[in-house]
Each structure stands twice: as structure tokens, then as C-alpha cells.
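Hi L.,

As promised, 3-beta hydroxysteroid dehydrogenase:
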Amino acid sequence: MNVFVTGATGWIGSATVDELLRAGYKVVGLARSDASAALLEAKGAAALRGDLDDLDSLRRGAAGAEAVIHLANKHDWANPAESDRAERAAVETLAETLAGTDRPFIVANGISGLVEGRMVLETDPSPAVGADSDRGGAENLALDYVNRGVRTIITRFAPSVHGTGDWGFIHFLISAARKQGVSGYIGDGSNVWSAVHQSDAARLIRLGLEKAPAGSRLHAIAEEAITTRVIAEAIGRAFDIPVASIAEEDADGHFGFVGSFFNLSMTGSSERTRELLGWRPTGPTLIEDIMAGAYKEAGQQ
């Protein structure tokens, strides 16, 4: 099977490309630069030059593929409206190209903001509807195409997809701790995050491609609930930095942009996903990764 992957050289995408190639798939990855194209070609994948704003390249990639995995996102924290616009346009372009083919279309999302006061379940629909909502309402837009002959599969990721080389939230938390000289948690540190190792996330994507029916919502979650205090304490031990509570009003100053996320509970269940796919996470836990030095480069200038 020939699979087109956006975000193919990103954190989750690079592991997904490796997973697909090991399983015998042919992969074409969207590449924004010559360097990204060279990385893909060195692995044995093909490269298609373009980006999320180049809708013609997305159409070409989807038209020539038997499956599409959409993992790219602008993640423009300074201009989230632009990220939302680009995400909706990309998903619509890819889905329109696949309409009537019954080909798989895997679309990435996160679990943040989907429900309040409890963990997110696979049965929970996204409340983001319309172009002006989070990620441009792309999850619901993609699911609308199930009735138009697209095997849409939503894959929602834990807030921490961790491992050596991770540049996500944990990297920024550690960078803040090293800069401030204190590994902080907000308030009493009782907010909870879910987590999954990069390799387990990539394997889930492959299994979803192979097994998940149209309209599925999959959760890439290995650990359901790790308190933010436990995360901060692990960072403190790993880097020999004192640990302390940070007042909510001081969170932005201490953590930077990641403080607004560290002040949230972002947790979900993957019980249905495991039953559906036979997926069993085998990678290290988040705390094991922190303690083993997976983030030793974080915060270094």
C-alpha cells in the first residue's frame, strides 16, 4: 500500500514513517525543504515537496495514495487563528480528493478541551464545529466525509508524546525549570496529564490504518493520569533542581506559554482503542524517559 503522510519529518510523523516502512508500506512524505526531503529519501521513503499552504501538493499526494495520514500542523502559538485556518483547509483538500474512494484518511487531534471535569473517552465527540473553532473544526469536518466515501479515522494524542528528541510540552517544562532554577508545578499539582511513548503512538497509527473502521476515534494514550506534581518532581530529580509550587498568577512568567497547558487536566482513556486494535503500549513511561535522560538536552543553549 502506498501511504501519503503529512508531517512526515515531525516528531510523531518521523516515527510513523519508520513504522510503516518496517511493515512493508511504501511511503510518500510531504517535505517543506530539501533537508526534509533528504531525510525521507535516506530512510527509503519518497518525498513530495510542499507544505500545508500548498493545497495543490496535498491534492497530488492524496490522489496518488491508497491511504493518507495527516499529522502536520502549523502550531503557530502567536497566531492560532492562522493555524486553525490552515488545518481546516488542509483537511478539506485531502478529504475532497479522497471522496468516493473508501480509502483510509487518518487525521490527528489532541485531547485538550474536548470535555471538562473528567477524562476524554473515544465516544466523546469534539465540540469544535466550524472554521472559527479549535483546529478549524477539522475533526468533525473529516468525519463528515465518512458519508462521502472516505474511511476517516481520528487519532487523538496525549498531551505528552514523549521520547528522546521530543520538543513538545515536557521539553519546554524542563527548559523553564533549568532557566528558573526551580522545577515547578501549579498550585497543589493535582492536575493530571496523559502520556504515550513516541513508538507506541506510531504503532497505533499503523494498526488504525489496518484495522479501524470508518468513523473511529482512536486514543493514543498509554498512561491515563500523571499528576503535574509528579512530573515536576521527576524533572527536579533528573536535573538536581529544587521543586516548588508556583502560584497560578505567576505561571506564565515561570513557564512561558506552556504554563497555560500545565494548569489544565488533559487526560483520556484508551480502553476502547485497545479493544478495537489489540494495541498494547510497550514503550517507557514518561517518568522513566525523564529519569533516563531522554530530555538531557532540553534548556541548553
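The CA atoms of residues 120 and 268 lie 4 Å apart.

Thanks again for sending the construct details.

K.
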